[in-house]
Design a protein that fits this description.
The complex is a heterodimer. By secondary structure, chain A is mainly α. Chain A has helices spanning 9-28, 40-49, 73-85, 98-129, 131-144, 153-160, 163-188, 192-200, 205-243, 248-257, 261-289; strands at residues 52-54, 60-62, 90-92, 95-96. The longest helix of chain B is centred in the last third of the chain and has 19 residues, at 241-259. The chains are: A mainly alpha, B alpha/beta. At the A-B interface, α8 and α9 of A face β6 and α2 of B.
């Protein structure tokens, strides 16, 4: 069979990007104002509303201060340039540079995700080793797992009374269930022989855990963490929007409130970049603990 | 008293659908002397692996008791190391780490250098020098079981329990490793209890072969003395006049019990009660 797929994928990626950007640019171009076919009265009305302004040559043009539409790629690049130039500037309590916003989101995400992972892995091992306990707890997990982490937010906000902790707890709720369920599964489906060897060698409880059970279940646990990771990343952005906590999700919302659509698009791109950074860090970690059988 | 005594051990599993308990085997009694190599042969399902696991302490027995060196066995321990049919090597550890895990557990007061030297000694013994840092995924079945043997021998257990150790290894490699095991055993003279369904393997390695009837309610029906002098090799063994006598006897037994798991003793079962194994020896 002929090998499917020749050529340089980067070249194709670049080509797609160029097509996309030019398409975006062309679609968002606004035709210059055409006064033809409009009565004097209509023109006066438009001018009165501030939609058009008189040019020096005596004609009319769109008033760029009022009529914006969806910004083109150039406007977004311009916005990105100004934002990145002020990346490390603290202008006011709610106006921090983009680098700070990324830092806030990443640390908020990391705190919630790490705490959830530790709790979920510990409980998962406990459930995985005890079949009766697992069957007793499983119905609760099944009910709690599909609840959107954002649904917890009002309750969390009411109980902890602090939006900072609420945002972290939302991330926690988003990432605890998949890890818990897969860890329990991974530990319970660990090959009996490994535990037999550990039993014959009289390994201590702790050694059994970190030399046999954890590494044995690691590939399954990592899969659970990966699912948790995705759902936590999805949860952190709206949590910031709703709670008004500084971060990249907040940036997107505040730019919308400012009606700065270029800023919104920039914020979306930043969310994407943050996701890629966190994901690559996670993949490095995953590569360390997986093994082949 | 014998070194290892399995005294009237029975095993029941809870039956399905409200029926009574299912008896896997009943009143199995066997005595293994120190330095002896004893093998149990039987068809699949006769409970021979269960018996081995009971001696290892990995499974509970329903009736009877197991004594090692005069003391009752309860639970697994370093004095009874198992070589598993599917190797049971930790895939996330290298060859060295797999063996070192066992050595460190057995000799907790040893320093680092002593452990390393000990592990290397056994890696060399099974001819795996150069593969110390490989993980099990990179090894063939034969090499994996060499690691399993090295791990078992390295902690110098009182009894080695071999659970169909070569069943998952291709026939040509199997012969080579069997011979290696003969040499390792000659050097250490460990007490070994092996479970297998390979007749040639049993004759090559064992001092005595126990023949188990089919389950349910399996029992040890015959004990065959392997009257072939040591040291043995695969080549010398088949030339011994007793080889085919023993082989045919064992095969006849297995064939007789293949179709029906009856308690009938056949021509060799005449005399003695049904529960006392018949001793067979071609002197």
């Amino acid at each position: 069979m002929k090998k499917n797929g020749n050529g340089n994928p980067w070249l194709i990626s670049g080509f797609i990007l160029v097509i996309f950007l030019s398409g975006w640019h062309l679609l968002t171009l606004r035709a210059s104002f055409d006064a033809k076919g409009k009565t004097q009265e209509q023109l006066q009305m438009l001018e009165f509303n501030g939609d058009i302004i008189r040019t020096d040559e005596g004609g009319y043009a769109w008033n760029s201060d009022k009529i914006k539409g969806v910004p083109g790629p150039l406007a977004v690049v311009e916005k990105a340039r100004t934002e990145l130039a002020e990346a490390f500037v603290l202008k006011g309590t709610n106006d921090h540079g983009i680098a700070y916003l990324v830092l806030y989101t990443v640390s908020r995400f990391s705190a919630g995700f790490l705490a959830a992972s530790v709790v979920a892995i510990l409980f998962g091992i406990l459930l995985g080793l005890n079949r009766v306990l697992f069957r007793a707890i499983n119905p609760f997990i099944q009910i709690l797992k599909p609840i959107s982490p954002l649904a917890w937010m009002p309750l969390l906000l009411y109980t902890v009374k602090d939006p900072k902790w609420t945002a972290i707890l939302v991330v926690f709720m988003a990432s605890v269930w998949p890890t818990l369920a897969t860890t329990a599964f991974g530990v319970s489906s660990l090959k009996k022989e490994y535990l037999h060897v550990a039993a014959i060698l009289q390994l201590s409880w702790f050694k059994r855990l970190y030399r046999v059970i954890l590494p044995g279940a690691a590939p399954t646990i990592v899969n659970g963490l990966r699912i948790s990771f995705g759902s936590a990343l999805v949860a952190v952005v709206p949590a910031e929007m709703l709670l008004g906590e500084l971060g990249v999700g907040y940036l997107s919302w505040i730019e919308w409130n400012n009606l700065d659509i270029a800023g919104v698009i920039f914020a979306i791109l930043v969310v994407g970049v943050v996701g890629v950074i966190l994901d690559s860090g996670f993949n490095k970690l995953a590569g360390l603990v997986t093994y082949q059988e | 008293m014998s070194f290892l005594v399995v005294d009237h051990v029975s095993k029941f599993f809870p039956g399905h659908a409200g029926g009574g308990d299912v008896c896997i085997f009943k009143d199995v009694t066997l005595k293994v002397e120190k330095g002896e190599f004893v093998t149990v042969i039987g068809h699949s399902g006769c409970g021979k692996s269960t018996l081995l696991n009971i001696i290892a302490g990995l499974e509970t027995l329903s009736e009877g008791g197991v004594l090692l060196n005069g003391r009752e066995v309860s639970g697994p321990g370093l004095d009874r190391m198992v070589v598993f049919q599917n190797f049971a090597l930790m895939p996330w550890m290298t060859v060295f780490e797999n063996i070192a895990l066992a050595v460190r557990s057995a000799y907790q007061d040893w320093g680092r250098d002593k452990v390393v030297a000990h592990v290397h000694k056994y890696i060399e013994l099974v001819g795996l020098k150069g593969a110390e840092d490989k993980r099990p995924i990179a090894l063939s079945g034969g090499m994996k079981q060499r690691v399993g043997l090295a791990r078992a021998f390295s902690i110098e257990p009182k009894v080695l329990l071999l659970d169909e150790p070569f069943a998952q290894i291709d026939a040509l490699t199997r012969g080579v490793i069997q011979e290696e095991l003969v040499q390792m055993w000659n050097a250490t003279r460990n007490t070994v209890f092996m479970v297998t369904h390979d007749v040639d393997e049993a004759i090559l390695l064992s001092d005595r072969i126990m023949l188990m009837t089919n389950g349910p309610s399996a029992r040890v029906a015959e004990i065959v003395d392997v009257t072939i002098p040591r040291p043995r090799s695969r080549e010398s063994v088949i030339e011994h006049p007793h080889y085919y006598k023993i082989r045919n006897h064992v095969l006849h037994f297995l064939i007789r019990h293949a179709s029906h798991g009856g308690r009938e003793g056949g021509e060799s079962g005449a005399g003695g009660s049904a529960d006392v194994p018949v001793l067979v020896s071609f002197a």
